[in-house]
């Protein structure tokens, strides 16, 4: 590590720099609807999956998560089995899910109920 300059700011050797991942995850220049869950953010015009550089789920750089690949595989297996086994529906009387979030140390969804109906 050495002293460095970035955009006119001087950073001394050993300075701890914590990136603000939200600046990329909620950037309107990178996402069509940054404040909403939108699976289309990850699809091209033909419906094929595309990787967005601004999607930093597991952080970035030398401090990124070493278990990222395993976590992605586990998530794929978990959700593909759920979607293969169940059809998901809203409970009777519920018309719409709340799509905003609670702001604390991290962002978390409001609690809600959903019905998993065996296929």
Brief account:
The chain has helices at 22-25, 68-85, and strands at 4-6, 9-11, 86-89, 101-103, 107-109, 115-118.
Describe the model.
This protein is an alpha+beta fold. 18% of the residues lie in helices and 17% in strands. It is built from two helices and six strands; from the N terminus they run ββααββββ. The chain has a two-stranded antiparallel sheet with strand order 1-2.
Strand portion: 15-25%
**Whole-number average pLDDT?**
85
Radius of gyration: 19 Å
Number of strands: 6
Tell me which oligomeric state these chains represent. single chain
What is the terminal separation in angstroms? 56 Å
List the helices and strands and how they pair.
Blueprint: E1 4-6, E2 9-11, H1 22-25, H2 68-85, E3 86-89, E4 101-103, E5 107-109, E6 115-118
Antiparallel strand pairs: 1-2, 3-6, 4-5
List keywords for this structure.
alpha+beta; two-stranded antiparallel ribbon; 2 helices; 18% helix; two-stranded antiparallel sheet; 6 strands
């Amino acid at each position: 590590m050495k002293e460095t300059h970035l955009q006119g700011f001087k950073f001394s050797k050993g300075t701890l720099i914590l990136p603000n991942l939200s600046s990329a995850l909620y950037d309107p220049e990178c996402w069509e609807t940054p404040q909403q869950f939108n699976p289309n953010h990850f699809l091209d015009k033909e419906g094929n999956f595309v990787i967005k550089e601004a999607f930093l789920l597991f952080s970035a750089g030398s401090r990124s998560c070493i278990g990222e690949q395993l976590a992605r595989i586990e998530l794929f297996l978990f959700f593909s089995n759920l979607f293969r086994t169940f059809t998901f529906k809203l409970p009777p009387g519920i018309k719409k899910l709340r799509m905003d979030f609670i702001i604390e140390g991290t962002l978390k969804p409001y609690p809600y109920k959903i019905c998993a109906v065996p296929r």
